[in-house]
Amino acid sequence: MHALRESFGWKRFAILDTDAHHGNGTRDLVRDDPDVLHVCLCHTDYQSPDDTKVDVAALGKYDRQSAGLSEEEINRAYAGTAARAFEPRVRAFRPDLIFWYFGFDTHRGEYGDIGLSRDAYLLLAKMMRRLSQEMCSGRLEVVLGGGSRSDIARGLIPPIIRVLGER
Ligand SMILES: [Zn+2]
After folding, report:
1. Which of 59, 76, 129, 146 has its CA at 20 to 30 Å from residue 87's CA atom?
2. Are 142 and 102 within 8 A, CB to CB?
3. 9 — alpha (psi -120 to 50), left (phi > 0) or beta?
4. H helix or E strand, kind and range, residue 65
5. CATH number of the domain to which 28 belongs
6. 69-78, 82-91, 151-160: which has the minimum mean pLDDT?
């Protein structure tokens, strides 16, 4: 981010972290930087006093084992959590560039399985494309995070790239 500021004059960055685990490394790096919005979907709820460092429990009150939600309901709950946590904050924050730290370790059968399947990630991709177009001329950088199964990666990543490439 220092390099981006030096090279392009971009100052403010918004990060959506949808890896299964808390993004503690990223958070440590940006903790004291008021020009970085970091919204992390994990297992806890937290808001810094200036509302630029935020954790949200990814499925809210739902727990996939106990709630008996269908696959589609879990996908929608997750994408809805991301939209409510990220969209209004990005609009208020007005970033120069948006990052999506995308992990698929939350997918069914992965090591951070919370019951998601492909549609959840496609909903996120559509939101990120729309927000980046609306807020910062489409500037969106997607960073690949956790996930270990190549079969899941092959089923997810090409359609996500297609969604991100739509105008
Ligand atoms: Zn977190």
Report:
1. 146
2. yes
3. left
4. helix 64-67
5. 3.40.800.20
6. 69-78
How many angstroms separate the alpha carbon of residue 167 from the centre of ligand 1? Answer: 31
Q: Which domain holds residue 49?
A: 2-165
Angle (CA) 114-91-164 rounded to 5° is 55
The three-class DSSP label of residue 62 is: coil
Distances (CA, A) of 54 to 16, 36, 44, 136: 10, 11, 9, 21
Tell me the CA–centroid distance for residue 44 and ligand 1, in Å: 6
Number of domains comprising the chain: 1
Cα–ligand 1 centroid distance for 163 (angstroms): 26
Q: What is the pLDDT of residue 60?
A: 63
CB 107 within 8 A of CB 117: yes
